[in-house]
């Protein structure tokens, strides 16, 4: 018999951990499936094993993840299964996953998708060269092993770019340069949002102090950069761009790209939840109720997978969802749900400013014809435009013609770009263009493991 | 519902359904000089025609289908001339493996029976010959049956290429338009949709799993069932197989694509939800597909599944399609229920339906495919 659990949570980042704590505290049987060996997600990655020095380098916002992780570890009744990769959600929330090379399944009474965000892919000339990485990837190295790259150039926009630069400065290996793509006039255009964001001024102050720290350390900073291209034959040798009307070329063997993060839609798309285009965040988000339930009953999203709001909000959303489910199951939850909703509203005040200031650059949203946008199948933006001109109305037809999104990444990397290229070429809104139909498995699955899989076999690791 | 007067001219033939059968019929009718309109509730090649495994196979067909399949193969071999695009069509052996002597004896008997009917395209492979063609096949395989110049094609490309060619010859395609009702009015059929109506003296119903709804309206109910055949594709492997392989005793369709990926399907089914256009993948079923593939090709033990998918298809209880004229109404024609093996038949049946619509009859005997075959027992 397949196990039935009241709550199955996918992801052990801040949202997943907090949700588990609340759901279990109300006596609901709760399972947390997470790919990583330790809780924390991306934001608090390796939080339990971080050394004091690493905590110092990574800063207060990272270190506070320790409290949540320890609350999660101590929660009674949370069945935490690290190293689990969910590869499908079958009918009636049958969660199918792989752990230790074996696949099994749990049926979820309520399913909480806490799979967070992914970095927005940054297609620009040369981005597929070895030596090109992302700010997020560099930060993961820093969190998990304390490694930093000497002489890396960070380019793009967004808070993480400056945070990583500040952390690299503190780690003693500052980046060679920061090449920021925010247009110079944009700060003035965001004045109304900036004023509204004063209600959450601790974020603004933190941001300013990060930028000050990087500047004081002597890192070369280029603002308002355009027409970025990465050069190299076989591997990165330099980055070129234009800033303040001047052409620049910086020699480097490591370029880290970043243009913000976007919700990881794979699970909610697989389930067929309704999504909408958020033009401020330039991404799709699942439609959510006040309790963060999707258009599919009993499926919830907690954290950045529902729209980018940051780690603190993710934690509060996780608690909110855990309590909302408990409420539905007839467990009393008191006034906390209302308090959390209010706190989430306060926390969100800084977002419009950040979203407007750090809108991804045009070069990324609408790449040149020659730029590869689907890395797995090596398809250029130009081929997608041609296919649209020949009559392909949406991503699924483009996929059928060009194989975009059919590679091992399952469209995670090219999906949003393909939608925005089709939208631009056809004049249709991103909502009308829509997104790939996502097919399982969500992550590549060994054929031999599937051959051994039985959905009806109990999971031998669990005594229940 | 109000019937809006049709803004269209009245075509000679209205085709309901933009799959390969509808598109091929539209093309061949247009080649005969008929004016054709195709209405499709979603988009052309959205369902079974666009997402099937792409096998172009005469091998192993029901004897009733063999003459049509053989004719279709001739058209396939000339597909670039017909459509101006090659549709990814490649000639390759289709091989059905025998895993024991009993299965092989059955295959041998079939080949002899076909030969007596005058068809020589299926040949028996012995243990040695099967390994010449499939060096990676498992040790226990004792032989097989093959059509050496069958092949495979890209289904979405093929179906949309039929559409493009038909359009070049004047056919009109209207997508996102679902036929709701068929009514007879002054010598024409009127097909109403939510927003519009279409009028034509002749109507071809070729909308796969959804055809039964329209046939029932015409008082010709048929037991067509919506099914969701399951397929999966692996990551790239070094080239090891240039044939399309099936098995005798268990369902399988196995093919390594030119890019190295391996597409595996052939009979296991998910859950079809035709009303919502969705189908559910059942990995408990695909598990059996994975197991079969590994046991016939041990190299597959190292492969990784990248994607699984399904498409909604119409299946008949006897697993052969409904092809031919209505038994009750003038000007109504049917072509559906291909039961997950209609892709190869598309070109020849398209040609037949055009012949039928244009002349009222066909040279080929279609009696085995008649729509009323499921009721004959009750009538007698």
* Tally of contiguous helical segments of chain B: 11
* Termini separation of chain A: 11 Å
CATH C-level category of the largest domain in chain B: Alpha Beta
| Domain module tally of chain A | 3
Give average pLDDT of chain B, whole number.
Answer: 94
Kindly report the greatest chain-chain contact and the residue count on each side. Answer: A-B, 28 and 31 residues
Quote the average pLDDT of chain A: 93
Percent range for β-strand residues of chain A: 15-25%
Q: What is the tally of beta strands of chain B?
A: 24
What radius of gyration of chain B results from the CA coordinates?
21 Å
Q: Determine the CATH topology of the largest domain in chain B.
A: FAD/NAD(P)-binding domain
Number of domains of chain B: 2
Shape of chain A: globular
What is the overall silhouette of chain B?
globular
**Helix count, DSSP H or I runs of 4 or more residues of chain A:** 19
Description:
- The complex is a heterodimer of chains A (464) and B (380).
- Chain A is an alpha/beta fold and 464 residues long.
- Chain A contains 19 helices and 22 strands.
- In chain A, strands 1, 2, 3, 4, 5, 6 and 19 form a 7-stranded mixed beta sheet that branches. In chain A, strands 8-15-9-10-11 form a 5-stranded parallel beta sheet. A 3-stranded antiparallel beta sheet of chain A has the order 12-13-14, with no helix packed on it.
- In chain A, helix 1 (14-25) runs parallel beside helix 11 (311-328), helix 5 (135-145) runs parallel beside helix 6 (159-170) and helix 15 packs across helix 17.
- Chain A is globular.
- By secondary structure, chain B is α+β, with helices and mostly antiparallel strands.
- Chain B folds into 2 domains: 13-53 and 156-224 and 317-374, FAD/NAD(P)-binding domain (3-Layer(bba) Sandwich); 93-149 and 229-310, D-Amino Acid Oxidase, subunit A, domain 2 (D-Amino Acid Oxidase, Chain A, domain 2, 2-Layer Sandwich).
- In chain B, strand 11 (188-192) and strand 12 form a beta hairpin.
- Classes of the chains: A alpha/beta (464), B alpha+beta (380).
